Amino acid sequence: RERAKLYRLAGVSMVSAQLQSGPNQGRRELWEEAGFSFFGGGALMHVLLQGGNNRSASPNIEDYLVDLRGKRAKGSHPSAYHMRLWCPEAVITPGRYPWNLLMEAARKEIDGGAIMLDADLETHIWSHCFCPDCLAHFFRFSNLEPVELDPLELLRRYPMQWYRFRSEQTRLIYEQLRREFLPKYPHLRIGANTVNTNFEKDLAELKHGICQFGEDGRLLGDSVDFLLADTLTGSLADVVAVDTLRSSTGKEVVAVAGTSYCVGYNACVMAHRRETARMTGDSYGYQQRPQLQKLSMMHMLASGATGLRIQLDEASVVKATQEATHLLSRVEDFYFDGQRRDAKLQVRDCTEGASPWLEDKSRVRGGIWQHYYKRYHGQGQYRVHQLGDEWLLSLFNWDPHQRKHWLLSLPEMPNSNYYLLDVEEQTLWLNDANDSWAAETLKQGLFVEVPAAGYRLLRLSGNKPETSKQISVKYVKPIADQYAWYSGEQIDMESFLENALKRPLEQLERFGDLKEDAGSRVAAADKPVYIPVSLPFTATFDPSQKEIAVTGKLQQDGIYSSGEYWFASLRLPVSNTALKLRLQLSTDLEQKGKLGIILYPDDTFQTLQHLCWGKLPGVDGWLEFDIQSKFLQKPTRLVFYNVARQGEIIIRQLQILPEEQHE
Ligand SMILES: [Zn+2]
């Protein structure tokens, strides 16, 4: 009840059906009585990803995708195709096993009360599916003569057609959901979770950017009612993504405000960054999360988002959200019903002095946010909306540390007198002593300050707004182009494809021949058979000595890490006395090797003791490490790592001795 009350105050109207203490936990009525409705869809993602589930569940071999080598995925290791399993044609064919899974998942969400479903399918474009059904559909859809080609050759010959085709298969997934559920639930709204990257370039006539997955919002047509922009960087790039997604699809866009997603500025990331910053004796601005929440919310809505998805987890962020929704109530008519007129405004950045943020080279401050600030022209971000004869100028500053001074000019305003209201401050800006501004004066321009990690909203209208607060501002005399990032060049599909193929091919190489496993983390490597050492133990570096499991290279003169991360392990018996591990090591000439030795329980990876982690503690003579007896009450494992994964570490001699024998 407290939570519902708080959410109400923050302006929230829908909550996730899967919310903690939410409608799914027997509290549906409570939330409904408080006036909330529910959204869902997370389960749909899990159906298509099938991570950790039984990867041989369907008896029909044709339900499984065919990979780049032409093999079916049945029983495959989850990492082979980044958790994907099903042939898309099987997903879109009523009655097939994966189709049933999808419909069951959606039904569960709807039964849970969800009236909006958004599916984050993230179906891979390039790793599948090359089965006969998919290929036949591909040639039909692309109006191409069917030819027999190996999957890689096919992708390289028809990258753009394949890209379109994979989104077409996704579009048909949404069509199936509509066909199945809309007749019974006409108010259900179905959306796709998607986003493009590289907005500065065009993909053929599709305009801004390219989608990393087979779910390009521009190709989904009427199969979706809205797009949920998968904006997760917490930076200006998110806003540009929403702006271009909205303009290039015409779809309604629900955006994830920058402090909410799994990456970006979310509470966990921020807590970590704040801690790291504190250790260097500086806050680096990470206390600004509430300001960034407001900035992101306002900028997203000014850029065409019609809804926002937020996560409320810190009191300061709840308060900021509340303030932003309150402010939004004063400008929403402009954002939702007004016409975008960005070209009518000219902005010159006249800020003096360099930005301390842009000068900063430390990683702790979040290089990715800086990167996007520079790439998407953070130095002059504004949106202009016209509603009737009123205008709203929304100015946004993503620099977290520097207040900006901008010169605004409006060269083409109809000849009239305008009142200028700062919407948040509710202050009338006077032109020296006059309370209104002539079009000619607005053409010459006026100086405006925009707070760091903040915004300023100015309304221009012919009628004098009701406010008692007035301030006098000076107007004065390079023009910033907020779209200077846009090149209009074409995306190079061939190099995009080669890049995109790297990961699936690497996954195939590493995991393609492994079978599904009960989810053990060591399944990726060959699971060694452990035989506990008997004490005292001396390594002989002979393959007949089975106690040492080597994933690096076993030679007569030692164990070589040979490019492996964990390169050797051995099992210790239960012991009532402490043990001493004695090692003689050598490393390559550059001494890049860093040694790690960790003691684990025999059956998990919960660290019992770090014996060593980092640069080699010298390579001459014997190294000795003590293993405390309190950790040895149960069977344990010692694992040897090459921490830096570079250079070579060689174990030349290895002994394990009970403490008293060593003495
Ligand atoms: Zn297929």
Mind explaining what this structure looks like?
The chain folds into four domains: 1-40, no CATH class; 41-230, no CATH class; 342-473, Sandwich (Immunoglobulin-like); 525-662, Galactose-binding domain-like (Jelly Rolls). The strands form six sheets. Strands 10, 12, 13, 15, 16, 17, 19 and 20 form an eight-stranded mixed sheet that branches. The chain has a seven-stranded parallel sheet with strand order 1-2-3-4-7-8-9. The model is unreliable at 519-528 (pLDDT under 50). It is of the alpha+beta class and 663 residues long. A hairpin with a 2-residue loop joins strand 23 and strand 24 (558-560). Helix 3 packs antiparallel against helix 5 (97-111). The longest helix has 23 residues, at 159-181. The protein contains 17 helices and 31 strands. Bound molecules: zinc ion (ZN). Residues 65-66, 87, 89, 129, 131, 133-134 line the site of zinc ion. Zinc ion is lined by residues 65-66, 87, 89, 129, 131, 133-134.
The profile of the biggest β sheet is:
8 strands, mixed
Q: What structural class do helix, strand and pairing data support?
A: alpha+beta
Total helical elements: 17
Whole-number average pLDDT?
87
- What is the strand content? 25-35%
Oligomerization = single chain
Could you say which overall geometry the principal axes of the C-alpha atoms support? globular
Give the domain tally: 4
Provide the list of bound ligands, each named once. Answer: zinc ion
Distance between the termini: 66 Å
> Portion of residues in helices?
25-40%
Say how many strands there are. Answer: 31
Low-confidence stretches: 519-528
CA radius of gyration is 30 Å
